[in-house]
Design brief:
Blueprint (H helix, E strand, L loop, with lengths): L2 H4 L4 E7 L2 H15 L3 E7 L4 H7 L5 E6 H11 L3 E9 L3 E3 L14 E5 L2 H13 L4 E2 L12 E3 L5 E5 L13 E4 L1 H6 L10 E2 L7 E7 L6 H10 L2 H11 L4 E2 L2
Parallel strand pairs: 1-2, 1-3, 6-9, 6-10
Antiparallel strand pairs: 3-12, 4-12, 4-13, 5-10, 5-11, 7-8
Length: about 250
Amino acid sequence: MPPACAQEPSTIRVGVTAGPHAEVLDAVRKVAAERGLNIKVVEFTDYVFPNQALANKDLEANSFQHEPYLKNQIGKTGWKLVKVAYTTVSPMGFYSKKYKSFADVPSGGTVAIPNDPTNGARSLQILVANNILKLRDPGNVTAGITDISENPKKLKFVELDAAQLARSLGDVDAAAVNNNYAVQAGLDPVRDSLIKEPLESPWVNIIAVREEDKDKPWVRKLVEAYRSEPVKQFILTRFKGAYLPAW
């Protein structure tokens, strides 16, 4: 057996967050199986552990995050992880159980946003794009609430774990919720979001692997299976604009 084949894992373990990312990867798994690549889908309930598991070699790849989040994690940990492909884009939105429009959120209202630096910045940039507030540097992908330069509505911000934001909607006036958690909570990102980010943004989801594996044959097979026509059609049909192929 040639050395390259000896290093090929019989099954690759790919980490995802439960919900849409897991659904898409299951479609990828079926395509990959037809092409001779076995994938085991490993689900997580938050954004922290999939990268840790990848760095610790408990996974071969993960598919759940955008590149700014990965870079922020690497900056804090030194993990040798790299992007190997873009996958989907899913515009983050703000939701409310109390109001039909963000304009109806009262002065001094409470708004919940993610507590990790990149998704927190992402939510603030949506507010900037909709002329609700201003940041000193709106292009900063780790901007936080201390970077707000103008807040005419005097909104009060609560920072929560991303997985908790949909559950907070009964307690706040509005909350920014990542699409995977929004869909899990029964929200429709296309119909239910008060405001959302434009498609042209840095927040495109990716496949990540360990740097040492990036040129392995199975990585190419994984990317090709993900970017196949059956997977593309599944995304378009299943999510109806809440998630879109980014290839």
